[in-house]
Amino acid sequence: AKDSGRNAIQMFRRTMQDAASERLRLENDLRLALSRGEFELNFQPQVDARDSRVVGAEALLRWQHPTLGPQSPGEFIQVLEESGLILEVGGWALAESCRACKSLLGDGLVSAEQFSLCVNISPRQFRQSDFVERVTRTLSDSRLPASMLKLEITEGIVIQNLDDTIGKMRRLKKLGVSFAMDDFGTGYSSLTYLKRLPVDALKIDQSFVREATHDSNDAEIIRAIVAIARSLGLETIAEGVERSDQLVFLEQQGCHLYQGYLFSKPLPSAEFRTLLANSRQR
Ligand code: C2E
Ligand code: CA
Ligand code: CA
Ligand code: CA
C-alpha cells in the first residue's frame, strides 16, 4: 500500500511536470508564431436585424499553425495572458485591425458613420500605463477615424483600479473611440461599476443566448440586461446567435444587434470583404 501511494505521488509529479513543460512549449511556440507572423485576424459581422445591414465586425485572433492549421484563441489566449505575450500580440491585433478597417473604408466597402470595428482588449493590455498613448499612436499611424474603433473590455478590467479605468476610458472617448462591455453578466458585474464606466454598449454573452428560448432563467437575464442597458442609454448586442428562434426572442426583448453563426462565422479578411461587397449591392 505504501508503494502504491508512492507510485501515485510519482505519477502525479510526472503529470504536473508534463503539464508544465507542455505549457512552456506552447509559450515558446507562441513567441515564435509572433516573430514568424503566424497570427491572423478573422472578422465576424455584426448585423442590425431590422434591415440586415452589417453595422460592424469583431476582430478575432487566429493562429495559422504551420502543421496543425488554424487555431482558435480558446487554446492559447490564457497562455498569452499569463506569459505577458498578450501585450505584444494584442498590440499587433489592434494595429492590424485599424489597418484592415482603414482599407475597408478606403475601398468604399464601409462608411465611417455606419461601421465600427470591435477589438478585444485583455485586462493586462488595458492596464499598461501608456495604453491610451498606444491606442492614440496606432490610430494616427493607420489614419483610421477614431469613431470607427470600438474596444471590447471585460468586467475583469475594473476590479483593479476603477478610477484609473474610468480615466483611461474618458481620454479615449474624447478621441472618439467607443467601448463595449464584453461577456456582460458573466463576471464581477456590479451595477455600480457599470453606472460609472463610460461604456457605449453591452454584449450579451452567448451563454445566456444559447438557452434563452427554453430556459426561463436565461430569458429573464436577457430581459434584465436589455432593461439595464435601456435605462443607462446603452446599446445591446447579442453574441452567439445561431438560430432564428433566438433572434426572434432577442428582437422581442428589444435587442436588434447581433453577431453569430446564424448570419456568419468569423471570416478571413478576403471573405469578409466579399461579404461586404455583396451585401452593399442589395
Ligand atoms: P469573445 O470575445 O467572447 O468572442 C466571441 C467568440 O464566440 C469567438 O470565439 C467567436 O468565434 C465565437 N462565436 C461567434 N458566434 C458564435 C456562434 O454563433 N456560436 C458559437 N458557438 N460561437 C460563436 P473565438 O474566436 O474562438 O474567440 C474566443 C475568445 O478569445 C474571445 O471570446 C476573446 O475573449 C478571445 N480573443 C479573441 N481574439 C482576441 C484578441 O485579439 N485579443 C484578446 N485579448 N482576446 C481575444
Ligand atoms: Ca469579444
Ligand atoms: Ca464575448
Ligand atoms: Ca465569451
TrEMBL record:
Annotated signal sequence range: none
Superkingdom of the source species: Bacteria
EAL domain span: 23-280
Record-given protein name: EAL domain-containing protein
Organism: Metapseudomonas boanensis
Taxonomy of the source species: Bacteria, Pseudomonadati, Pseudomonadota, Gammaproteobacteria, Pseudomonadales
Complete-protein stretch covered: 691 to 972 of 978
